[in-house]
Specification:
The complex is a heterodimer of chains A (696) and B (798).
Chain A (H helix, E strand, L loop, with lengths): L11 H4 E3 H8 L3 H11 L9 H4 L9 E3 H7 L3 H21 L3 H11 L6 H7 L3 H6 L1 H12 L9 H21 L2 E6 L3 E8 L2 E8 L12 H25 L7 E2 L1 H5 L7 E2 L9 H9 L6 H35 L22 H5 L6 E4 L5 H10 L4 E4 L19 E3 L13 H14 L16 E3 L1 H10 L35 H4 L4 H19 L5 H8 L13 H28 L8 H27 L10 H28 L3 H40 L1
Parallel strand pairs in A: 8-9, 8-10, 10-11
Antiparallel strand pairs in A: 1-2, 3-4, 4-5, 6-7
Helix pairs in contact in A: 3-12, 6-7, 10-11, 10-12, 11-12, 11-17, 14-15, 21-23, 21-25, 23-24
Chain B lengths: L4 H53 L3 H20 L6 H10 L15 H8 L15 E5 L5 E5 L33 E4 L5 E3 L6 H8 L6 E5 L6 E3 L2 H11 L41 H16 L15 H4 L43 H9 L26 H14 L12 H4 L6 H4 L6 E5 L6 E6 L5 E6 L3 E6 L5 E6 L6 E6 L8 E5 L2 E5 L7 H12 L2 H13 L8 E4 L3 H6 L1 E7 L5 E4 L5 E5 L8 E5 L4 E3 L11 E4 L5 E5 L4 E5 L4 E6 L6 E6 L5 E6 L4 E5 L8 E3 L6 E6 L6 E6 L3 E8 L9 E9 L9 E6 L6 E5 L4 E4 L1
Chain lengths: 696, 798
């Protein structure tokens, strides 16, 4: 007989280890273990069979994969932690003795410095892996870049986060890899595609963040420590991949003045193909402001010698690039051939979406996101009010080169709008003597300039084309801002598609009927009530829903219909009573409904006979819309019922396991359907209210 | 010293002086041998007197001090003058003295008489009587009185030096006991040994005297005398202070004595040759040296560590390089689960969403009311008409923090997403139209019975329906019209529990059971003559056997009660067509015919050993196949094609091979109480109805447990029946007043299981006292069935 195997020596019992045991095995404290886990990216597991792992107990425990922990045993950081602990002890002792100088010296010279390079390499063996995990890192850094410095969050960390974020943004601008952006209530989402990886990050709006409550900044700090290292390496790689020097030159003075993106100066490596410099050179002629001119000159001077040196090689290289880079479009020669899908080469177009324009940001607009987006989509000349910080292309609002002005102010009443003559006048003066201009919105508008709200920029980039600016004019009611990431799925509600195309059969009619009944009741009740009450009772918001209460005929019809509806209801109730309580419904119901249809026909015939006998002309039964609605609805309902029956019948034959599976699937689907239906209903109500408002 | 505190205080104040004086005394003692000792005693006395006098005078401390000083002065002065003591005193003095120094004798001489004179005349003492005035008082240059003492005559002739030293006899008690007294003990003669004199009087003297050798300034506590060190002792002390070894003649570094090697042995201790390593340089050491040399060359060991640089710049601290310069993709590990990305925002997160995404009042209230953890989403969609009106998001930091927690605290599990089309799960069922025909509606109702209709049967030609009920009548109806065509009352007090037509189209024989009697009926009134004749012939064929039978039994020694008695019924019944009456031992509940019509089986559940009986029609013979039956028999059936007989007991069904007389199979439907069962015309499948609301389908080839268990009834199932005319249908009748029709297709292929499809629920029977439909039977050809209800009607469904 084979040797008896002892329980708990192999398999799951060995594969998993509780946290307490892990900490004991590593011989470190729990906070250190936590840090180590964060750095190394080790996370708890959920064993498939908990009882086997925890020797029969089912208490809630955290399990780690044993091999992970074993792996941690050889981590160099572990030693660093121990050293750190030793030094901390010494410092504590020194402080206890009141030897502050000693403590400071110990801290400065003996505190081990933790380096995470090897962990980065270990966790992300390839650059693509690192890019894949960049979402959280960027979101975190952008958040920390906007936090105030506290005792938990030293200002050094914040400054580092800010730098890394801006450097990354610079890369995105230079490589035109920003794809989409979205203004949400949480913040601004951006999505960039770098080397085929979609990176989505969220930047909070610039407000003071609420940090109260049970937020442990030590944990977040540990994450930030790791992320800063990661993003540093990623930035280096990204910069070098497009031939830029990393780190870019940082202008502390400009940063102090609120230069943000402008505080960095990108330098090309070898080829002077730096986008920023080239553009500045282009625009130099148009620049009027002395400061900007000087700056541009300076930059141009810097760039010039390099460019001359390398100009020939650059030319050849670009030509080669043109030859090799782009994907050739394959046209099928014969008609019967299959067509293979090819990626669209629209990124170049996208990259120059805003290229021909000069933007000016009013002081109430958020400068940082707008600047970033505009520049990422090819706009070279973005100016803004000087209160928004340093680094603007122009801070002069009346600059004639400005083509678009982004404004986020309510429109003034029309009386205060200046007449065109007035507005043209200052423009004339501009050309005349070049003195400071007073062409300031909303007092006056510059001719030939487009005024838009910020949402225009976002909607343009999400739809990859320039939209009609008049929809986004200052003070106009904006079209809804939609998330670019939602893909229309079958059965889900899509706000872009008209209602008729997505509702299921008979739904609209049912709604109308229901609403109609409601309306009637309401009308009876709220005949003299004020409009506001009506709105409330309808549950719509915004536009006043004014019902056709001045139309008595319709109301009368409504009453009729209500009666018929109740009849049909009672009928259906009968049906239900006949069939109700079944596990499966037979075919009785449709037979009976056939009967009822037959009955209707018979009644009709009877009426005709009576009419004939009395000699009266038969009044044609007026099929009102509501009748028709009811008919359609009933038909749809019947059909649905039949389908349902059929389904139930099928379900009965399933095995229990499959039935459960099906139930789960259907639960999700039902939820989705219900949600979609709810949204459709709301939309229908809103649309109805809108049409009613338009009619009056 | 004195009980009076004030006095003590005074004394303490004086004590330094005293001590000094004492010291001097001692010193003097040391020097002046025995002569001075006497005077010391005196001074001691005088001191005590001082204390006394002060207490009387009540002078202030200052005055005391002055006084004492004055006294000392006087004493000193008096010291100059040698006084001639009395004999005894002198003796005493001599006793006390340990050493004698004649040189100094003259300089310090005191006599206690003098002391007393000097102190003043106020006090009288016991010693005073012994003393004489040995001085004269004159006035000195300052006008102070001056005492001039007589010359003391030293007595040298005494031989006291030989005498043993005067020793204190107090024994081994601390000297401190005598602190309060002027004496320190008693000598051998019982005389007081006075405390050696002390005081300032000796100060001056001290100055003039060289400190003798061996003087320590300490008092020997044993003797109370000053402690003197001898020459040797001093020598030792000196050596100790010089860190030398005190012992004389001790050599700390003696010559080494070679105990082992000092003596040259002739033979060596070990014969081993001298090892080579004694002569070659150590390799190990060389290795270690080389290691260090190498480390130094490589810079791992720096002979001198440069001090850490003062302020490292932020930039230098953050060193970045191309960490992915030589990237090698890692193979995907099964246990590694990457952190899931956060989902991108949807429409409802927009700052300006389409209006339908905004929550209405109820949703908003529900969201606000819900606990934070129960909320489906952590935000409420809001609408802002312009970007400038968008506020900061309150939970931003919290959400990011929670994300952090999720990243390192949440267990990650790989879940397979259910990406199955639900339609694919559903089995492909035949279309309801393909399943047709099956009964759907009630086509005829057979009314006219009283009480429950217990049983119903359709004749093999499909024309008549026979029914039997609680009223004791057996009735025959025309199936299409529902008209009653024939009836007979077979019993007055028993119910007709079951009626069954004999299979076979050429005859029309109805078997009915009421109580213990089984009637075989030929309703000739409604039959054509040839059928009637054929039927009569069949029944009459057995009479011969019946006649012979009683005779054989009569011959037997023990006339055993026969299993059944076959007889002709009474005339009234015979006229109506009831031709044979068979009486068994207990009430018959079930009759089932063999397919050929030759045999029929009856079951009387209470019959115990005679519960199941098989009757042979042609011989009018009844056999009891089971001597003892396990369980309560419920029903019995013949196999449609083989010689197999099924018997259902309360919770199992057994099949017996009639030819071999053995048990073939036991089916375990898992039911609590089987009500009825039916065998599929193919013979391999069985349906079982139970009182516990279940309908079970058994595939005999598959297993002894049910292939399908159907539970679609709310109440007990009373009867089940297959369609025996070639249609794949079966029906069950239940106490909930409904019949259910199923499609049950059995294919010849063994690999394929039977398809069972529920088709129809037929309702119409009323439920009376919790009984609904009692029996169901199928038409032999058409998809029609007839049911018997507890409401006194039968219904035809088509």
């Amino acid at each position: 007989m084979a040797k008896m195997k002892k329980k708990g020596t192999t398999g799951a019992a060995k594969n998993y280890i509780t946290r307490t045991r892990a900490v004991k095995r590593l011989q470190i404290s729990l906070p250190d273990f936590r840090r180590l886990c964060i750095f190394k990216g080790i996370y708890p597991r959920e064993p498939r069979n908990k009882k086997k792992v925890s020797k029969g107990s089912t208490a809630a425990t955290t399990f780690y994969y044993t091999k992970d922990i074993q792996y941690l045993l050889h981590e160099p950081l572990l030693n660093k932690f121990r050293e750190h602990k030793a030094v901390a002890k010494k410092i504590g002792r020194a402080l206890g003795r009141g030897e502050v100088g000693d403590a400071a010296r110990l801290e400065k010279t003996h505190m081990p410095k933790i380096k995470l390079d090897h962990i980065i390499k270990e966790r992300y063996p390839t650059f693509i892996d690192a890019l894949r995990d960049l979402d959280d890192a960027l979101s975190m850094l952008f958040l920390f870049a906007s936090l105030p410095s506290t005792e938990h969050v030293p200002s050094k960390t914040i400054a580092l986060c800010q730098r890394l974020c801006l450097e990354f943004e610079h890369y995105v601008i230079a490589s035109h890899s920003l794809r989409r952006s979205f203004l949400s209530i949480k913040g601004i989402y951006y999505q960039a595609t770098i080397q085929g990886q979609d990176i989505l990050w969220l930047v909070p709006y610039r407000f003071v963040q609420r940090t109260g409550g049970d937020i442990d900044f030590r944990i977040m700090g540990t994450f930030v420590e790791f992320y800063t290292t990661l993003v540093g390496f990623v930035n280096f790689r990204l910069y070098t991949s497009i031939g830029l020097v990393y780190p870019p030159k940082f202008n502390a003075k400009s940063d102090e003045l609120g230069g943000e993106l402008d505080a960095f100066q990108l330098e090309g490596r070898g080829v002077g193909s730096d986008d920023g410099q080239a553009t500045n050179g282009d625009t130099a002629k148009a620049v009027i402001s002395a400061e900007a001119q000087a700056e541009v000159d300076k930059v141009a001077a810097l760039a010039e010698p390099e460019r001359q040196e390398e100009v020939s090689t650059a030319l050849t290289r670009t030509e080669e690039d043109e030859n090799t880079d782009a994907i050739d479009t394959f046209e099928p020669t014969a008609k019967d051939a299959d067509v293979l899908p090819q990626p669209q080469a629209s990124s170049a177009e996208m990259a120059s979406l805003f290229a021909p324009f000069t933007f000016y940001l009013s002081r109430e607009t958020p400068r940082a996101p707008l600047e970033f987006i505009l520049k990422a989509f090819g706009c070279k000349r973005v100016g803004w009010d000087s209160t928004l910080g340093d680094g603007a292309f122009t801070s002069d609002e009346s600059d004639p080169t400005i083509t678009h002005q982004i404004i986020d102010r309510p429109a003034l009443p029309s009386t205060s709008q200046p007449d065109p003559a007035e507005s043209s006048e200052p423009y004339a003066t501009t050309n005349g003597d070049g003195t400071a201009l007073k062409a300031q919105w909303p007092r006056s508008t510059m001719p030939g300039r487009t005024y838009v709200q910020p949402q225009w920029v976002w909607d343009c980039i999400n739809q990859a084309k320039l939209l009609r600016p008049d929809l986004y004019a200052p003070g106009a009611e904006l079209p809804p801002h939609l998330s670019p990431w939602v893909k229309p799925k079958k059965g889900e509600y899509d706000p872009n598609v008209p209602l008729e195309q997505q509702e299921i059969e008979g739904e609209a009619e049912a709604f109308e009927e229901e609403e109609g009944v409601d309306d009637d009741e309401e009308e009876a009740e709220v005949e003299d009530a004020s409009d506001t009450e009506m709105i409330e009772s309808n549950g719509t918001n915004g536009v006043a829903a004014i019902e056709d209460r001045d139309n008595p005929v319709e109301a009368g019809e409504g009453m009729d219909v209500a009666g018929s509806a109740s009849e049909s209801e009672s009928e259906s109730e009968d049906e239900e009573a006949g069939v109700g309580g079944d596990d499966w419904e037979g075919f009785e119901s449709d037979a009976e409904s056939d009967v009822s249809e037959g009955e209707a026909a018979r009644r009709q015939h009877q009426r005709e006979l009576e009419a004939e006998a009395t000699g009266k002309a038969l009044e044609p039964t007026i099929k009102t819309t509501r009748d028709r609605n009811a008919e359609v609805r009933k038909k749809a309902e019947k059909k649905r019922k039949q389908e349902e029956e059929e389904r139930e019948r099928q379900k009965m034959m399933l095995s229990r396991r499959k039935r459960k599976l099906l139930k789960r699937i259907e639960y999700g689907e039902d939820k989705r359907d219900k949600e979609a239906e709810n949204l459709r209903k709301k939309r229908r109500r809103i649309e109805k209210a809108k049409t009613a408002a338009n009619a009056t | 010293m004195a009980p009076n505190p004030r006095k003590r205080k005074v004394v303490t104040r004086e004590s330094p002086v005293d001590r000094v004086a004492e010291d001097e005394e001692e010193l003097a003692d040391g020097l002046l041998e025995g002569i001075l000792s006497h005077s010391e005693d005196e001074s001691e006395d005088s001191q005590a007197e001082d204390g006394d006098s002060e207490s009387i005078e009540g002078l202030s401390d200052e005055e005391d001090l002055e006084d004492s000083e004055a006294e000392v002065d006087e004493e000193l002065q008096s010291d100059e003058i040698p006084s001639d003591g009395e004999e005894d005193i002198r003796q005493q003095m001599r006793n006390l003295k340990t050493t004698d120094d004649p040189l100094r004798r003259k300089t310090a001489k005191l006599s206690h008489e003098q002391d007393f004179e000097a102190d003043g005349e106020l006090e009288s003492r016991p010693e005073e009587e012994n003393l004489r005035r040995n001085y004269t008082v004159t006035t000195d240059a300052n006008g102070n009185p001056r005492y001039i003492y007589k010359e003391i005559e030293p007595v040298y002739d005494s031989d006291e030096s030989d005498a043993p030293e005067a020793t204190n006899t107090i024994g081994n008690i601390p000297l401190s006991y005598y602190e309060a007294y002027p004496h320190i003990g008693y000598d051998i003669n019982g005389k007081k040994i006075m405390r050696p004199a002390k005081g300032e009087a000796l100060d001056a003297l001290l100055d003039s005297i060289d400190i003798p050798k061996g003087w320590t300034g300490l008092t020997d506590p044993a003797t109370g005398k000053p402690l003197e060190l001898t020459e040797e002792e001093l020598d030792v002390l000196k050596k100790v202070t010089r860190n030398e070894i005190p012992e004389e003649g001790y050599d700390p570094y003696p010559e080494m004595v070679h105990y082992f090697s000092g003596k040259l042995e002739i033979m060596p201790l070990s014969a081993a040759p001298e090892p080579k390593r004694r002569f070659v340089p150590s390799k190990h050491e060389a290795k270690r040296v080389m290691k260090i040399v190498k480390a130094i060359r490589e810079g791992r060991i720096q002979p001198y560590k440069a001090p850490a640089e003062e302020e490292e710049d932020e930039e230098e601290e953050r060193q970045v390089y191309d960490i992915w310069a030589d990237e090698v993709p890692r193979p995907e590990h099964n246990m590694h689960i990457a952190a899931p990305k956060l989902p991108p925002p949807g429409y409802d997160q927009s700052y300006h969403p389409p209006p339908e995404y905004l929550p209405d009042k109820d949703e908003k209230a529900a969201w606000e009311e819900a606990d934070e953890e129960d909320r489906e989403r952590e935000y409420l969609p809001r609408d802002h008409e312009a970007l400038r009106k968008v506020p900061g998001y309150e939970r931003f930091v919290k959400e990011k923090f929670e994300r952090c927690l999720d990243l390192y605290l949440a267990p990650r599990v790989r879940r397979n997403k259910l990406n199955i089309d639900p339609e694919s799960l559903l089995p492909k069922l035949p279309d309801p139209d393909e399943l047709k025909p099956f009964p759907t509606t009630c086509a005829a109702i057979f009314r006219g019975q009283e009480g429950r209709v217990r049983s119903v049967s359709i004749d093999p030609r499909g024309i008549f329906v026979a029914s039997g009920g609680d009223d004791g009548y057996v009735r025959i109806w025309e199936i299409l019209t529902g008209r009653q065509v024939w009836n007979v009352k077979v019993s007055d007090d028993d119910n007709v529990d079951t009626v069954r037509w004999r299979p076979g189209k050429d005859s029309a024989i109805l078997a009915a059971a009421a109580g213990e009697n089984i009637y075989l009926i030929v309703p000739f009134a409604i039959l054509s003559p040839d059928v009637e004749q054929a039927s009569r012939d069949l029944l009459d064929a057995g009479w011969g056997y019946a006649a012979s039978k009683p005779s054989t039994t009569a011959n037997g020694a023990a006339p055993k009660e026969p299993a059944a008695r076959w007889s002709r019924p009474e005339k009234r019944l015979e006229d109506k067509g009831v031709l044979v009456q068979t009486t068994v031992r207990s009430t018959v509940k079930v009759i089932n015919w063999h397919r050929k019509g030759e045999y029929f089986a009856t079951v009387s559940p209470r019959g115990q050993s005679s519960a199941v009986a098989i009757h042979t029609l042609s011989k009018h013979l009844t056999q009891l196949p089971f001597r003892r039956l396990r369980g309560l028999a419920q029903s019995a059936q013949f196999h449609p094609s083989k010689a197999i007989f099924f018997v259902a007991t309360r919770n199992s069904i057994r099949s017996y091979d009639l030819a071999k007389q053995e048990l073939v199979k036991i089916l375990q439907p898992g039911a609590k109480w089987i009500s009825s069962f039916d065998v599929h015309p193919g013979g391999d499948n069985l349906i079982v109805g139970t009182y516990d609301k279940r309908l079970l389908w058994h595939d005999l080839d598959l297993s002894t447990t049910p292939y399908k268990t159907l539970r679609y009834h709310q109440e007990a199932i009373r009867a089940v029946a297959f369609h025996h005319g070639g249609l794949p249908l079966f029906a069950d009748a239940s106490d909930d007043g409904s019949l259910q029709i199923f499609h049950g297709k059995v294919v010849g292929d063994l690999m394929e299981n039977a398809t069972i499809v529920p088709l129809k629920v037929l309702r119409g029977h009323q439920v009376r006292s919790r009984l609904g439909v009692m029996d169901v039977d199928w038409h032999p050809r058409e998809p029609w069935c007839v049911s018997a209800g507890a409401d006194g009607t039968c219904r035809l469904w088509n």
